Amino acid sequence: GENVEQHPSTLSVQEGDSAVIKCTYSDSASNYFPWYKQELGKRPQLIIDIRSNVGEKKDQRIAVTLNKTAKHFSLHITETQPEDSAVYFCAASIDDSGTYKYIFGTGTRLKVLA
Amino acid sequence: ETGVTQSPTHLIKTRGQQVTLRCSSQSGHNTVSWYQQALGQGPQFIFQYYREEENGRGNFPPRFSGLQFPNYSSELNVNALELDDSALYLCASSAGQGYETQYFGPGTRLLVL
Q: Cα(B84)–Cα(B2) distance, rounded to whole angstroms?
């Protein structure tokens, strides 16, 4: 069935360094790929998303790249700050002839060390 | 802060009981999706409602059902509760189906004893 694999499960970086989180999806009908940040006890918050007709998107320190051929997409955070510490989830939206499914990855716990 | 609200915030039930969770979508949004998030896991898609019709469903049994009302608020009903149903239940609203941005509510934490 549909699946989204996310790596790594945990990631520790020094403040100011870059962090990269990678996801791979299985269903070629996937056409929308959001990334969410979830702080402890809080709701997931969208931080960036990309649609299947675009290869890269950037918003200040955050960027997402998409490789449709390889079916993988990545989140890049540059100049990390302590407040970037959270759990990050990737997701893929599958459009199956007008019905939809959303598959989330298992999450990456990012810790930015001051 | 988004406009998606959920009630109740916490709930304790026993096995075999039934539960109804509620979600009010953000103003202007006509689509609501429901997710189950077990501790330490990613959200699992339950189903999506678009203009009062279910238009997508994940791998959940029929005892998970829902409704969407004309004002686009929504309910998630779970019958015959099992211990494994203990989780955080999130709803998310969006301005349309498919690849519209979803905004999550704060969730309802359900504990089944």
A: 29
Strand, coil or helix: A82: helix
Helix (H) / strand (E) containing A101 = strand A99-104
Provide the 3-class DSSP secondary structure of residue A71: coil
Look at residues B29, B13, B40 and name the one whose alpha carbon lies nearest to residue B105: B29
Residue A94 corresponds to which tokens in the numbers above?
């599958």
Q: Are the beta carbons of B102 and B93 closer than 8 angstroms?
A: yes
Beta-carbon contacts of A53 under 8 Å, excluding residues fewer than 6 positions away, are none
- B56 reaches A (C-beta below 8 A): yes
Chain B residues with CB inside 8 Å of A108's CB? none
What are the residues facing A6 on neighbouring strands? A23
The answer to whether A87 and B26 have CB atoms below 8 angstroms apart is: no
Q: pLDDT per residue over B47-88, tens digit each?
A: 999 999 998 889 999 999 999 999 999 999 999 999 999 999
Q: Which chain A residues have any C-beta within 8 angstroms of a chain B C-beta?
A: 1, 6, 31-32, 34, 36, 42-46, 49, 51, 89, 91, 93, 95-96, 98-107
Q: What is the pLDDT of residues A41-88, one digit of tens each?
A: 899 999 999 998 889 999 999 999 999 999 999 999 999 999 999 999
DSSP-derived 3-state class of residue B18: coil
Distance CA B18, CA B29 (A): 28
